[in-house]
Automatic annotation (TrEMBL):
Spans through the membrane: 21-44, 56-74, 94-111, 117-135, 155-180, 192-213, 253-277, 289-311, 318-337, 377-402, 408-427
PANTHER family: AUTOPHAGY-RELATED PROTEIN 22 (PTHR23519:SF1)
The Major facilitator superfamily (MFS) profile domain, residue ranges: 252-443
Biological classification of the source: Bacteria, Bacillati, Actinomycetota, Actinomycetes, Pseudonocardiales
Keywords, in A-Z order: Membrane, Transmembrane, Transmembrane helix, Transport
InterPro entries according to UniProt: Atg22-like, ATG22/LtaA_families, MFS_dom, MFS_trans_sf
Entries under Gene3D superfamilies matching the protein: MFS general substrate transporter like domains (1.20.1250.20)
Protein name, per record: MFS transporter
Length: 443
């Protein structure tokens, strides 16, 4: 009797904290969708910079510098976060980092459409991106105090889905009110609509962050990492020792970090270059591209929830491998397709499999991390992802240069996904903490 009631009791126990935790993902869509993807970066390169080529080059430089800083700082930051212990306040640290992101987002309203403002806008973008990546370390590590045994995948999937849905809702609100050809609220002056939208995004993120800062975790924290309670310089020495130890003692965990870095870069590229391909290769109008972006996020959100559910039943590795294989097959079909209808069909299938692969990657790592080292290894998770973030864009550009047509960039992204899948196959999950649950051993 007790065994049959335990799952429902655990579900009831985590319901409210899970909603509060996922609210941060919902709110973070303000930064991901408004600032870095659809609105502010487009404004920087198209209206603030002297020309699009100069703006694009400067934007790439700013993002690269921010990525290098994340790669250098994230693992040691996560390591020190573990040493501080969950009881001393992952919520507090998440709150301070989120405050930095919100402040940077709000200050973007000061960026006028003139070249002299470009580097100020890029500075705000770079600092916000850096803070966001560190905040992700704290946020991801909280999953251990939210997920009962066997439910890690579902919890991760709900968080990812909340982020997708939050982006859809906010993008729709901003588009209808301020950014459409005939908006509900019109502003005089170039760029004023975008400058208002970033303020809306900052408020959206601030309000959505309140629940996670006030919630109480349903499960106790893992023990703190006392070995990491050292200064910053000594933290880097400890990091290198632990990487060497990881290579010696747990190559499967190290292998997953490397493999996931590769295929996550491919997953990011699916969305990054999807709009470019939609307009340039398949002939979608700008309005249709925005509509497709909304539909793609809806489908990805549903896929993330479904993937989380499957994760807890058959294990995350199987779900990730099936998704990567499906993405490769779909991309191969789109390589030789043409026309808007083909893109809508192929792009929707791609979106369906991106969400589960992303959600299950976080869950997979959560299942195999040794207790007390959550922040450190999620820091490494962020670092490895940043370390190869050039790979898919480089392959995309390389194959366009070789074959002379934009559509061949699809082949470059597909090869990155194939490489990620190939390096994932030999990885074997060895549960590293008590919350790993029964699903981990199935992979």
């Amino acid at each position: 009797m007790s065994s049959s009631t335990a799952p429902s009791a655990s579900t009831a126990r985590i319901g409210r904290p899970l909603a509060a935790w996922a609210a941060w993902d919902w709110g973070s869509a303000a930064f991901n969708h408004i600032v870095t993807t659809f609105v502010f970066t487009v404004y920087l390169t198209g209206s603030v910079a002297a020309d699009e080529a100069t703006g694009s080059s400067a934007l790439a430089t700013a993002i690269s510098v921010s990525g290098i800083l994340v790669a250098l700082v994230a693992p040691v930051y996560g390591q020190r976060s573990d040493a501080a212990g969950a009881e001393s306040g992952r919520q507090r640290r998440l709150g301070w980092l989120t405050a930095v992101i919100i402040a940077c987002t709000a200050l973007m309203a000061l960026i006028a459409p003139a070249p002299s403002y470009l580097w100020w806008g890029l500075l705000l973008l770079g600092v916000g991106t850096f803070a966001y990546e560190l905040a992700q370390v704290e946020y991801n590590a909280m999953i251990y105090r939210l997920a009962p045994p066997g439910r890690t995948g579902r919890v991760s999937g709900i968080g990812w889905a909340a982020g997708y849905v939050g982006g859809i809702v906010l993008l729709l609100i901003c588009f209808v009110l301020f950014l459409a050809d005939s908006p509900v609220v019109a502003f005089e002056g170039e760029g004023m609509a975008v400058r208002v939208v970033v303020i809306v995004a900052a408020v959206w993120f601030a309000v959505s962050t309140i629940p996670v800062l006030r919630m109480r975790f349903p499960f106790p924290p893992p023990p703190g990492d006392t070995e990491a309670a050292v200064g910053w310089a000594a933290s880097y020495k400890l990091l290198f020792r632990r990487l060497a130890r990881l290579y010696r003692d747990d190559r499967h965990l190290l292998g997953f970090l490397v493999s996931s870095a590769i295929y996550r870069d491919g997953l990011t590229a699916v969305f990054t270059f999807g709009g470019v391909l939609a307009a340039g290769t398949f002939g979608l109008s700008p309005g249709d591209v925005i509509i497709f972006a909304i539909v793609a996020n809806v489908v990805s959100a549903l896929g993330a929830v479904l993937g989380g559910w499957l994760d807890d039943r058959i294990g995350p590795k199987i779900v990730i491998m099936v998704c990567l294989a499906a993405l490769v097959v779909t991309a191969g079909g789109m390589l030789f397709a043409s026309g808007p209808t083909a893109f809508w069909i192929g792009g929707t299938f791609l979106s369906l499999f991106v969400g589960p692969a992303q959600a299950c990657s976080r869950s997979y790592l959560a299942r195999i991390v040794p207790p007390g080292r959550e922040g450190e290894l999620f820091g490494l998770y962020a670092t490895t992802g940043r370390a190869v973030s050039f790979l898919a864009p480089a392959m995309f550009a390389l194959f366009i240069a070789i074959f002379g047509a934009q559509r061949w960039g699809i082949l470059g992204i597909g090869l990155v996904l194939v490489l990620g899948l190939a390096t994932l196959i030999p990885v074997r999950a060895v549960p590293g903490n008590a919350a790993a649950g029964q699903a981990a051993v199935r992979t």
